[in-house]
Design goal:
alpha+beta, Immunoglobulin-like, globular
Length: 394
């Protein structure tokens, strides 16, 4: 008993427990903030960020992967041992960070990926809620060129730019490379043995400025923007996509990088999203937005297409063979797009779309189970009959 007690105490000392009173306070505060942004009927996503359960895990920290389940909303972050691998890879190709096969984070989300994922509202635990100005429901009509596009691994900006161009082609680019006007590396290492770099850039359009680092060693770097430190991702196996802030066209931005190795700064790309062009794209499609309701295993809504070439409805619903789709009451075949999202063919100008989910193999499995029970019952009955006859003979 003494040995068990000592081992138990030693284990608890190295793994501190969460605070029950802190949890009660955190959940009450966050529920009050999130509940007004959710709906029990309309299907859309909420991008929830900021420290969650801060008082609960004051000593150990909490990454927020289970927030959607705790506060009952459709989010982006997820921690699940049964996560669909194709969906995870598609999200990574759009810029979202994934530490391993069980996790997807909202780190690396951009205005473009929020548009594609059906994010209606962004909620920060410290600054409150903000509506997404580029929200187009859980999907919108697209053409065959969009449906045929294949995401490329480790080419986040290329993927995002190509997707927008296939939704609405324009002269020029949605994502404009920032001009690097000066690059400076400190001659001497810091006292801690780190290399210091400074990039001076000029933005070519008004909107958010993003940094993409193709070398995963950037995760060990400290980054400042105009002297202010920003929170970087701790990545293990893919690119970093970091938002550096929102800037007007022609702004001069000084980016400082302190890294343990020179290789940490290899393959860095800086691009600004033209907010006005993205706004024009979404404003022209507001009447076509797919804003479905959800009830049990069924998602349904009406979508109107205004272009003869937009014969598909892109939805931000992960593709799965369990989805059965109908358009205006007629069964149609869904299609896998953008890695692992669902597209539905549109047959008319106005289309009532219904997606109903049935677990693949459920009917077959239930049938086999019934056959197995009947077979076992029949075998047991025959066995008892034989035993009874044997006893009568004896």
């Amino acid at each position: 008993m003494g040995e068990v007690s000592l081992n138990f105490a030693d284990t608890l000392r190295s793994a501190p427990l969460a605070s029950q009173s802190g949890y009660q306070t955190d959940v009450a505060q966050q529920t009050k903030l999130i509940t007004p942004q959710t709906s029990q009927r309309q299907l859309y996503r909420v991008n929830y960020a900021g420290p969650s359960l801060a008082q609960t895990y004051a000593k150990t920290g909490y990454m927020g992967y289970n927030d959607a389940q705790i506060y009952n909303f459709n989010g982006i972050k997820q921690y699940d041992s049964t996560m669909n691998e194709q969906t995870r890879e598609a999200l990574m190709a759009l810029g979202l960070y994934s530490k391993n096969a069980r996790r997807i984070s909202n780190q690396g989300v951009t205005a473009i990926s929020e548009l594609l994922l059906g994010v209606k509202t962004s909620v920060n635990s410290q600054t409150g809620a903000k509506s997404n100005p580029y929200y187009l429901g859980m999907g919108f009509p697209v053409n065959s060129r969009f449906v045929q596009f294949k995401l490329q691994r480790f080419a986040i900006f290329t993927n995002l730019e190509t997707i927008l161009q296939r939704i609405q082609p324009i002269n020029g680019r949605y994502l404009q490379p920032a001009t690097v006007t000066a690059t400076h590396q400190a001659a001497a290492l810091t006292a801690s043995g780190r290399h210091r770099y400074q990039l001076r850039v000029t933005t070519q359009t008004s909107g958010p400025l993003y940094l993409e680092a193709a070398d995963k060693r950037i995760s060990t770097a400290t980054i400042t923007v105009n002297g202010q430190a920003i929170k970087s991702m701790v990545t293990k196996n893919n690119h970093d996509l970091i938002r550096l802030g929102n800037y007007a066209k022609g702004a001069h931005v000084v980016i400082g990088i302190s890294a343990p190795t020179q290789a940490s700064t290899h393959k860095i790309h800086l691009l600004s999203l033209d907010a006005a062009k993205l706004q024009a794209l979404t404003q022209g499609r507001q009447q076509q937005a797919f804003k479905p309701t959800i009830s049990g295993n069924q998602v349904s809504g009406t979508v109107t297409k205004t272009s003869a070439t937009n014969n598909w409805l892109y939805t931000a619903i992960p593709y799965d063979k369990g989805w059965a789709a109908t358009v205006n009451g007629k069964a149609v075949q869904t299609r896998q797009v953008l890695g692992n999202f669902t597209a539905v063919p549109l047959t008319q100008k106005t289309n009532h779309v219904t997606l109903q989910y049935h677990v693949p193999g459920l009917a077959l499995g239930a049938g086999l189970s019934v056959i197995g029970l009947l077979s076992f019952g029949g075998y047991d009955w025959l066995r008892r009959r034989r035993q009874q006859r044997t006893d009568e003979v004896a």
